Amino acid sequence: MKLFHHSKHNGDEFVYNENIHQRKRKADCHKVHAGEQYVVYNDSIAERYRTINQIGEGSFACIYVAEEIESLPTRAGLLDCVVPKSFAVAKPNTPQKLVVKVPKQNSRSDEILKEWEVLENCIGSDFIVTARFLSNKSTHGLCLWMDYYEGGDLYDLVNECDISLMGSTLIIAELVLALEFLHSRNIIHGDIKPENIGLDYFGHIRLLDFGVATQLREIHRNPITGRLEAITESGTLPYAAPEVLMRRHHGTETDWWSVGVMLYELIFYKLPFMSDTEDPQETCKIICTQHFPTPPEATLYQDAYILISQLLNKAPEHRLSYSHDTGVQSIMKQEFFKQLDWEAVRNKQYKAKSFFSL
Q: How far is it, in rounded angstroms, from Cα 176 to Cα 52?
């Protein structure tokens, strides 16, 4: 059952939804002990893997890194399964390491299947995670297998490295291209945050975790505006947009709000919306009713500040990118990106790692 806490401020209603997650500490994830290593095999491609360690956990599933092994153990394990032929769509040259998303006990497999269907619609983007195949196990339902990116994620990078202004610009630019691709297929990601920005060996991004993504269809078309809109109830504080917290119909512009929050965090090393006590209801109220603070350093990063201001517009219809036809172009033309050649960004010609330092 979904629980909502309703509050009112100056006649406007906002909602703290328990489906809007708060950020979990990575320390809560744990290694899989030697006695808990399991394998999965696929008859159609003869790939065999065992889980190495847990790297994440969501509401419905846990995320593990798995590596290929030469032979199966004698006893069956947690992930022993055969991929049904209808799901055996693994791409050739499957990597030595993969990531597997395993449903929690008593979780429904349709969440995994929904994510798989969204990722199938994202084939062709160099900035979105590559899904490899599904596997099936009666006690755990469907497991989703995806590429593993050894550069970690943006959350770790922000906390462990100094990122130059050019590095922050490149990260956001690659995210813009990922969302350009995603939104062109009428998909709302719904949970843009540093933990869901993976990094490959060279430091280029891959958008991860489509567990709460929404595929907009014709039934979602607003008869008045003609836009595809839905009500989504998931995300992560403090990256969720006001219209999500207020349970209003919205389109892909909610993702751009989250990009604005991330850009603010990259440039000013703090979050624009957060209660001093980290109380979720208070944070919701701040997001829905208050303007983000202007740091003293804003004068040094005017181009970034202007872009942030246009992305963090509480009125979705006035937010940069609202227009389906010109939205992404209106972002790409911002002065913040003036140092970049967009074709070079698209072709990953920049040496991303050179902009990060320990």
A: 32
Active site amino acids: 191
CA distances from 273 to 211, 238, 257, 286, 344 (A): 24, 6, 12, 6, 33
Question: What tokens does 317 get?
Answer: 């219809």
The number of residues in the chain equals 358
**Residue 320 in contact with residue 313, Cβ under 8 Å?**
yes
234 and 286 co-located in one domain: yes
CA end-to-end span of the chain, whole Å?
45
Q: In terms of domains, do 124 and 194 share one?
A: no
Helix, strand, coil tally for the chain in percent (to 5):
35, 25, 45
pLDDT digits (tens, 9 = 90+) for 299-332: 999 999 999 999 999 999 899 887 655 679 999 9
Mean pLDDT of the chain: 80
Which H or E run contains 265?
helix 253-268
Domain end marker among 128, 147, 166: 147
DSSP 108-122: -THHHHHHHHHHHTT
Burial category of 268 from C-beta neighbours within 10 Å (exposed 0-12, middle 13-18, buried 19 and up): buried
CA angle 203, 38, 111 (to 5 degrees): 65
In 3D space, the residue among 154, 162, 164 whose CA is nearest the CA of residue 199 turns out to be 154
Q: What is the tens place of the pLDDT at every residue in 30-74?
A: 333 333 333 333 433 324 677 778 988 887 888 988 887 753 343
Host domain of residue 231: 152-357
Distance CA 212, CA 114 (A): 9
Q: Other C-beta atoms within 10 Å of 109: how many?
A: 17
Which pTM does this prediction carry?
0.83
Write the DSSP assignment of 94-144 as a string of letters.
--SEEEEEEEPTT--THHHHHHHHHHHTTTT-TTBPPEEEEEEETTTEEEE
The DSSP code for 292 is: P
Closest CA to 89 of 146, 32, 156, 19: 146
Task: Answer yes or no: are the C-beta atoms of 192 and 234 closer than 8 Å.
Answer: no
